[in-house]
Specification:
The complex is a heterodimer of chains A (263) and B (640). Chain A has 263 residues and is α+β, with helices and mostly antiparallel strands. Chain A has nine helices and seven strands. Helix content of chain A is 34%, strand content 13%. By secondary structure, chain B is α/β, with parallel strands linked by helices. The chains are: A alpha+beta (263), B alpha/beta (640). At the A-B interface, helix 1, helix 2 and helix 3 of A face helix 3, helix 5, helix 6, helix 11 and helix 12 of B. Bound molecules: flavin-adenine dinucleotide and FE2/S2 (inorganic) cluster.
């Protein structure tokens, strides 16, 4: 274990409820080992606050290894903090110098209302997925998995889009608070796979419409989303989404034109 | 308590098929009259909720996280088994069945395991149809790799994120049903109690984690898919919110808890670095396909730079002790072997509690590119945490708590002894005996959810009269009041307590790891029981928590879980004490072979130990379900 212990000044957003106005508060946290993760540092701070009868800082986390997408806050203005391709839970205190001041805020977006402190409501993402982020197959007997060959490069690229963890960093980093990278990634995954092509028009139309309805902003190709994505998802997802949307509109096979009378 | 496993008759290979065709059915128009509560949205819960909704049942789906997609299954890395025999290396349903029964050290039910092996192939077809981007060969076919305890390549994977991709598949099926209106989602809810009406499971009490409100939900059946209880050890590979509360409260309502002492220690985790740590990170078992495990032969070399240690001075102890399985021995065997070399003083790293997992030879053989394609994200994860690159220096690994084979007792229908309460996935005890083979949990969760419960739930509905029950029933009020009392009591203590929940949680973890961990003995287990009882008493007198109950309060959530973990920890130690044999992950020092391998006692312990709650402060009652082995010959496990 490292003997090198460090001290930090934390400036953290506190907001007791969605209705109340929030504000920054300052906390001194001393004696932190550089092998401590950022969230563990907050755990330590919280235990100290609790003993002083100060309300601890609420934040979401679960896997604490960068895969569930539960954690996420702006650290010194950067979504998920100073490291590229990492989530907040994957940040270690060795990334900060002894004596640093660290500012911590929740994701800021109209479509992600604050619940408490650093905890936000991201259910808008779930609603985008339920508008078409799936292939409509039942749990049943299907053709043998190897009956359908998928070229390895396509499968690999589909995976690169499917790796999205739904954390919301792309929205938080985007000056327009757009969810285009999130939505585009799912659409691109399915566009690359034969299984996904059957419903492609309806999917893209409904998902994009839902995204707009949730109050996310439009994409103006700034690229902050790609830079902040902990999984390194390529902004090409957004180009695919836009192209698919256009193609769908021209195809006449979208939801609004559905001939099977669905909905 | 009567434990009837309801295993259908007939030859093992036909049991499920025959049973399925004889089950009672609910006609399509009537299905919409039935309501099902599914607690949990991991692989088991999400697949179950989606599949039952597709059939027409009305489903209410609950999870603790802010989205069903974040269930702990998302973190599974290595892969999922299926007896496809795509590698043409001799795999078959029978072989997967056999490997699983043997891997579980002959403490699982044959019939359940056979069904699992049988369904494994449909799972892969199902997931491919859903668009899960599995790894593929250049031919466009699906790729496979090997996992421990098997001599065939039957593991399907999606880089090192197989759980994520499978869960996103199940989640998408779930969200499709949310879209159709057949599933209603309740996120950020924690089930605190099971409500029984006329002895049947008819609803739950859940706490809204945003508002703190206690809410009542009624249904015709309850399906629990709430995962495992590895977090009873505090440090484990499980997610921070993984917990036993739902299972434990069902236990207290009369559900039998089976084999609680069967826990799995995973051999390849990143070692503990300090006392600030909140969890341990797994390095997938798939790494043992290409990584070689070793420690220095001589103690004096342990602190040296590993690259300076000559080949002749390295002890590849798994390859030496188990030549035919080598680095791919099952997890329990690999974990104990690591402990043994560290106990001899040959452990490496700052704490001396680690062994090397070395990719030098694989990189030399296949090139950096190939190794990176297979394990890139795991190597990155390792580097994030330790600051060292496995391309340059061997990984340091050590065993950690990973999975719990024990869980609520279920019959062949996956129903507990409480009618209407079904239990799926890691939360039940059913398929892995005393040790789970790698890549078999994902398989089990999905088999339970996609292909078993959709049938057996119909059979339940068609077999029992289920008069309408509403949340106004007095049983709901009573259960809610009990939960409310417990919360107020905690808040009262919490106002003036001195020691935080996290401090108690760590203490509990240390007791469990020390005495109910990799090696157990009578005196240690007795000590654990008395230490836990004392800790529990102190907890209820001295725990410090923020006292707001009517709002989002993470510490209060955790405080409730820790209270349950303490009680469960005691039951685990009790079960471990009772089982005076070594089997799978349960290693009793009193029962070992001269070479230090686990020694089973089939004469006295070829049974499932199912515990019945008898009330606060009372010793629980032990019921034994004998295990019959008609197809696999009971034999001492050997991986030599
Ligand atoms: C790091 C890691 C890697 C793994 N890798 C593999 C692998 O490669 N292959 C393999 O086969 N297995 C693997 N496993 C094991 C496997 O991931 C799990 O056993 C499996 O995913 C469990 O799935 P589940 O659906 O039973 O439960 P979980 O996925 O744990 O889901 C539990 C659900 O229940 C909910 N819940 C819990 N309690 C409550 C409550 N009181 N009220 C409401 N909701 C509640 C949670 O919110 C969650 O939605 C791995 C495990 C870990 C920890
Ligand atoms: S806690 Fe899961 S990604 Fe950070």
């Amino acid at each position: 274990m490292s003997k090198d212990l460090r001290n930090y000044k934390l400036v953290i957003w506190r907001q007791a409820s969605p209705q109340e106005k929030g504000g920054f508060e300052q906390y001194q946290v001393d004696g932190i080992s550089p092998d401590t993760s950022f969230l563990e540092m907050l755990d330590i701070l919280n235990d100290r606050l609790i003993k002083q009868n100060i309300r601890p800082i609420e934040f979401d986390s679960d896997c604490r290894e960068g895969i569930c997408g539960a954690c996420g806050c702006l650290v010194n203005g950067q979504a998920h903090g100073p490291r590229q391709k990492a989530t907040t839970c994957q940040i270690y205190m060795r990334s900060f110098e002894n004596g640093d001041t660290i500012t911590v805020e929740p994701w800021r977006a109209k479509a992600f209302p604050v619940i408490r402190d650093l905890v936000v409501d991201r259910s808008s993402f779930d609603r985008i997925i339920s508008a078409g982020g799936y292939i409509s197959v039942k749990s049943a007997k299907h053709a043998d998995a190897n009956a359908m060959l998928i070229p390895k490069p396509d499968a690999d690229q589909a995976f690169d889009y499917a790796t999205c963890i739904g954390c919301g960093a792309c929205v938080a980093a985007c000056p327009n608070a757009s969810a285009s990278l999130f939505t585009g990634a799912k659409i691109s995954q399915f566009t690359l796979m034969p299984q996904g092509r059957v419903e492609r028009e309806k999917r893209v139309e409904r998902m994009v419409d839902q995204m707009d309805r949730e109050g996310f902003g439009g994409c103006t190709n700034i690229g902050e989303c790609e830079a902040s994505c902990p999984k390194g998802i390529s902004i090409s997802a957004i180009a695919t989404m836009k192209a698919e949307y256009l193609k769908a509109a021209l195809s006449g096979r979208t939801e609004s034109n559905a001939s099977d009378g669905a909905m | 308590m009567k434990l009837d496993s309801k295993i259908p008759g007939g030859p093992i290979a036909q049991k499920w098929e025959t049973y399925r065709s004889e089950m009672k059915l609910v006609n399509p128009a009537n299905k919409r009259k039935f309501n099902v509560i599914v607690v949990g949205t991991g692989l088991a819960g999400a697949s179950a909720a989606a599949s039952m909704a597709e059939l027409g049942y009305n489903v209410q789906s609950f999870c603790i996280q802010d989205s069903p997609r974040r269930a702990h299954s998302i973190a599974a890395q290595g892969g999922i088994n299926a007896a496809k025999n795509y590698a043409n290396d001799g795999d078959s349903v029978w072989r997967l069945f056999y490997d699983t029964v043997k891997g579980g050290d002959f403490r699982a039910r044959e019939a359940n395991v056979y069904r699992l092996a049988e369904l494994s192939t449909s799972i892969i077809d199902q997931c491919v149809a859903q668009g899960v981007p599995f790894a593929r060969e250049y031919s466009g076919e699906l790729a496979n790799r090997s996992f421990g305890g098997a001599q065939v390549s039957r593991t399907f994977y999606a880089r090192g994120q197989t759980g994520q991709q499978l869960l996103l598949g199940a989640y998408s099926a779930l969200m499709r049903q949310v879209d159709t209106g057949k599933v209603k989602l309740y996120e950020r809810r924690e089930m605190l109690d099971l409500v029984l009406v006329d002895g049947k499971a008819r609803g739950i009490i859940a706490r809204n984690l945003v508002t703190g409100a206690l809410e009542r939900y009624a249904a015709d059946a309850v399906v629990l898919a709430t995962g495992g209880y590895g977090r009873v050890y505090f440090l484990s590979t499980n997610a921070f919110n993984s917990n036993a509360t739902a299972s434990w409260r069902c236990y207290k309502r009369g559900a039998a808890f089976a084999n609680p002492c069967f826990t799995q220690i995973h051999p390849t985790c990143i070692p503990v670095a300090g006392d600030h740590q909140s969890k341990l990170t797994l390095m997938s078992e798939s790494l043992r396909n290409d990584g070689r495990v070793w420690v220095p032969l001589k103690k004096e070399d342990c602190k040296k730079d590993p690259s300076s240690i000559a080949e002749a001075d390295r002890d590849y102890y798994l390859e030496r002790r188990y030549p035919s399985f080598g680095n791919l021995v099952p997890r329990d065997v690999a974990s104990r072997a690591a402990k043994a070399v560290c106990d001899e003083g040959r452990g490496v790293g700052p704490s001396g509690l680690a062994v090397y997992l070395d990719f030098r030879d694989a990189i030399k053989r296949d090139g950096r590119q190939v190794v990176s394609e297979k394990y890139g994200n795991l190597f990155e994860m390792y580097e994030h945490i330790t600051g060292e690159s496995p391309f340059e220096t061997p990984m340091r690994i050590f065993p950690a708590i990973h999975y719990t084979m024990g869980g609520l007792w279920v019959d062949y229908n996956l129903m507990s002894n409480i009618p209407g309460l079904h239990v799926l996935g890691e939360a039940n005890f059913s398929d892995h005996g005393a040790n789970r083979l790698g890549a078999s949990a994902l398989m089990q969760g999905l088999a339970d959810g996609y292909f078993v419960i959709p049938y057996t739930i119909g059979n339940y509905f068609a077999s029992y009269p289920l008069p309408k029950v509403s949340v106004d029933h007095p049983e709901f009020a009573m259960a809610e009041a009990q939960s409310r009392d417990q919360i107020s009591r905690l808040a009262r203590v919490g106002a003036n307590g001195k020691t935080t929940v996290m401090e108690y949680y760590r203490q509990l973890g240390l007791i469990m790891w020390e005495h109910v961990g990799m090696a157990r003995n009578q005196s240690g287990l007795k000590k654990a029981i008395s230490q836990i009882q004392q800790l529990k008493q102190e907890y209820w007198e001295n725990v410090k928590i923020p006292t707001e109950t009517e709002t989002h309060n993470k510490n209060l959530e955790v405080a409730l879980r820790v209270a349950d973990f303490m009680e469960l920890g005691e039951l685990m130690a009790t079960d471990a004490l009772e089982r005076n044999e070594s089997c799978g992950g349960h290693f009793r020092e009193e029962s070992q072979t001269p070479e230090g391998e686990a020694k089973r006692d089939d004469q006295n312990f070829a049974h499932v130990a199912a515990w019945e709650y008898k009330g606060e402060g009372q010793k629980p009652a032990l019921h034994k379900e004998p295990l019959q082995f008609e197809n696999v010959h009971l034999a001492q496990r050997s991986y030599k």
